[in-house]
Amino acid sequence: MTRSGPLDAALALTRFGLGARPGEIATAAHDPRGWLEAQARPGGAPTPPGTFETSEQRVESYQAYLGEAQQARTARREAAPQPAMADGQPPRDETAQAAFDARRDSRRDLVQDTARAFLARAQLGATTDAGFAERWTLFWANAFTASAAKFQAAVFIDQYEREAIRPHVFGRFEALALAAESHPAMLLYLDQAQSVGPNSPAGERRQAGLNENLAREILELHTVGADGGYTQADVTEFARALTGWSLPRRAGGAGRGRRAAMRAGQPGENGFSFLPLVHEPGERTVMGRRYPGGGVEQGRAILADLANRPETARRLARRIAAHFVADDPSPALVGALEQAWTRSRGDLAVVARTLATHPDSWAPEARKVKTPYEFVISAHRAMGTRPQRAPQLQQALTAMGQPAWAAPSPEGWPDTAADWAGPDALVKRLNWAKTVGDLMSAADAVTMAQDALGARLGERSRQFIARAESRSEAVTLFLMSPEFQRR
Q1: FRET partner for 445 with CA separation of 20 to 30 A, picked from 21, 31, 80, 283?
Q2: How far apart are CA 219 and CA 269, in angstroms?
Q3: Is 215 strand, coil or helix?
Q4: Which of 434, 444, 439 is closest to 476 using CA atoms?
């Protein structure tokens, strides 16, 4: 028999979601588990508002940028040397300067559009009624990290999350994996677009090489895991199968007709294109299974099998439990998630509902520490506000160690309490909390804390907040309280 009380309502909002807005704990109190289960909808997670380019449109913008970059290089190379001007400065070559300006403007537009999209994502997090769906989305975006730390990936990072991750987070894992691995953001981040089969038509002409990054990360980080039983030979074979997974080639210099069409490749969803000219021919064997030659379908078949292996279910079940509940989750919870995954053949809505209803998910102790992004978004939710300006949001997150969409490696953001609770990290959070406190100096921090934490607010923290010397200090104490920092 499951219990339901004031603490459960608070846990539903703060452990599984992104924090409570004023009055939201009371809304969920009648059925906290049902409130979570209802958010696991097959249609996916809500999408940030606003008008942004699709992945296909972004490919065109990116190709235009690449063309302008090439023109800038050509203009600099072809600029004829001229004598210095009277002030000793070299003369300005108008053609080269125009090409450089066009490239700079295109890059700036791409960066600014990505920043605007990140702000829209944060505003959705601060205002959504489906906090669990949003947290679930953030989990899977991190599990399939494509980092904006690399400019080529940053260009597509918003489209990646909106079109490859969000629509699939409550569908089958196989579909999510295929959408993520074939998106331009991932293909550029892990250099798959540069991979060429040595025995392909293009490889024989150019003596180009195989790139194993995507194949290795799919095996190690996205599916079976480092201890999943694969070998280096499996990595190489999988990398050969994935050759040809790319973006459409940029127009220009490819001729017309059949040759140009072959060079552009076979279009797919969300800006993906398969390039037969660079695909390594032949059958492949990966983790004991043989796959006939077949172009793009060969890589898809291997990925589908990896997504449905028991090692994948076991590894990701534990990762889900560790993210939402505790760094060392109970074997019972991990086992229940694994069984739900296996029985449903990777139906992530079923897995999410199992997480939301398992008794071990509702332990009263808060053993996870919010990431900087979760901290900022939950603070806005508690205050009933939302981020207004992208530069300030990005500066705050960078100062606290989690710059926008820029995980430090393909492993994604770290996910243990110790990773986010170091002394320096807490000082950075305190500095941000003080700034917020000054801006919210008219707020009633005690009421805010009660609305945001409900039954999780301890008496000791409530007294500290109530006895603060000023309202600004009270808001700061609330934001830095152990109950608010943890989930």
Answers
A1: 31
A2: 23
A3: helix
A4: 434
362 vs 5: CA distance, rounded Å: 11
Q: How many residues are present in the chain?
A: 487
> Which tokens hold the place of 486?
């943890």
Let me know: does 79 contact 96? Beta carbons within 8 Å.
yes
Q: Answer for the pair 370, 485: CB distance below 8 angstroms, yes or no.
A: yes
Instruction: Name 246's bridge partners.
Output: 273
pLDDT per residue as tens digits for the range 204-247: 887 778 999 999 999 999 999 999 999 999 999 999 999 999 99
* Amino acid of residue 49: P
340-386 pLDDT, tens digit per residue, is 999 999 999 999 999 999 999 999 999 999 999 999 999 999 999 99
Give CA 357 to chain center in angstroms.
26
Identity at 475, one-letter amino acid code? V
pLDDT tens by residue, 402-454? 999 999 999 999 999 999 999 999 999 999 999 999 999 889 999 999 999 99
φ, ψ of residue 369 to 5 degrees: the values are -105, 135
User: Containing H/E element for 274?
Assistant: strand 273-274
Q: Rounded to an integer, what distance in angstroms lies between the CA atom of residue 214 and that of residue 234? A: 13
Phi, psi of 472 (to 5 degrees): -60, -45
